[in-house]
User: Which sequence fits this backbone?
């Protein structure tokens, strides 16, 4: 079925998140206690709440979005391009700009969004942060009351599972086995918070996020048995 989807109708995406505060001690006492309770199962006795706080970016209640990268195909005749752009800066502006893109350019019934593990992470995280920032959720993100076949989201992890819901394959592993150039540059997800808070190098994070977005599109092409994008077809805007 995915072979029948018009590539021009898909918005590919990836997000980068960090702990909402730079360190555990910046949280007020109540949030420190709530973090302790929230992470008890994951930490067990191996880490204190303070030691574990570097992972707070994976929870929308304790993290924030610092970059959303999106990509979309423009195919005219035999000319194929993949345009990539990123939203970064203050979180509320990131979410507003992303929302405007969806509402103005990807709001029709045929439009879909696609990421890797995006149904479990990226999409819910974005929606929760919009609520926390008291912003309206675009219809494409608001799944309340929608039947499974009405959800306008594709997920390359889900497509790769083929119904095997206990199975997880990372983006890096999937690109490797499918013969796709590795999306990873000089950092990985565990280093994003340090690059953001200590090195203050948002450009490295944007590059990392955009590479992941391109990798998702490449995986989707592979699943359709189509030619991968070459460098000349990728346009950063």
Assistant:
């Amino acid at each position: 079925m995915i072979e029948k989807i018009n590539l021009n109708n898909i918005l590919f995406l990836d997000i980068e998140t960090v702990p909402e505060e730079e360190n555990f001690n910046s949280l007020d006492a109540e949030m420190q206690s709530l973090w302790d309770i929230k992470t008890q199962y994951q930490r067990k006795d191996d880490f204190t709440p303070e030691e574990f706080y570097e992972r707070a970016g994976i929870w929308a209640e304790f993290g924030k979005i610092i970059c959303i990268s999106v990509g979309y195909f423009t195919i005219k005749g035999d000319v194929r391009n993949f345009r990539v752009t990123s939203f970064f800066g203050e979180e509320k502006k990131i979410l507003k700009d992303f929302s405007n893109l969806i509402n103005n350019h990807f709001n029709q019934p045929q439009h879909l969004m696609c990421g890797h593990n995006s149904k479990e992470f990226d999409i819910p995280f974005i929606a929760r942060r919009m609520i926390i920032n008291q912003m309206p959720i675009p219809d494409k993100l608001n799944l309340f009351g929608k039947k499974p076949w009405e959800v306008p989201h594709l997920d390359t992890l889900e497509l790769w599972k083929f119904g095997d819901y206990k199975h997880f394959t990372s983006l890096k592993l999937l690109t490797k086995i499918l013969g796709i150039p590795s999306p990873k540059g000089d950092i990985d997800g565990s280093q994003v918070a340090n690059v953001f808070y200590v090195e203050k190098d948002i450009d490295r994070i944007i590059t990392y996020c955009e590479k992941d977005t391109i990798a998702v599109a490449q995986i989707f092409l592979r699943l359709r048995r189509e030619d991968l994008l070459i460098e000349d077809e990728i346009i950063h805007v």
About this structure: The mean pLDDT is 94. Residues 21 and 232 are 39 Å apart (CA to CA).
